[in-house]
Amino acid sequence: MTTSIAFALSIGLGAASYALDIRDLRPGSYVQRPAACSALGGAGTMTFDGRNFSGHYQMCRTDPLGGSRVRNTCIEAQGPNRPDPKEIDTDPDRTVVEAMVTVQSQTSFTMSGKQFQFCGE
How far apart are CA 79 and CA 65, in angstroms? Predict the structure, then answer.
């Protein structure tokens, strides 16, 4: 019986100390707070596809750098000629930004201090 209680306590402690990471974040569209979801589609919009964070009118590849740091390599992705993700490495106009991402829940995160909330898929 003592073993069962100790096991239950260790499971409880493990769950309490569990830190969320990008894999826990729900894919979909996010808007920067304090804006409401009605502002979706503007400059404060971020799309998360389950692996990559892409800003408004961008297609990005997100590479983990360790801890909560990521590198976003992005290209313009607006208009009828939507690029292929393979073009990210060959586009001479790509941008590269390093950021800190902290997942607060399955539907909210901060990126370099800016808070984002989930608005839908």
Answer: 31
Structure confidence at residue 106 as a pLDDT band (50, 70, 90): very high
33-78 pLDDT tens trace: 998 898 888 888 999 999 999 998 899 999 999 888 999 999 988 8
Helices vs. strands in the chain: H and E counts, helices first:
1, 8
The answer to whether 101 touches 110, Cβ cutoff 8 Å, is: yes
Does the pTM surpass 0.85? The reply is no
Which residues have CB under 8 Å from 86's CB, separation 6+? Answer: none
Give the integer Cα–Cα distance in Å for 25 and 111: 13
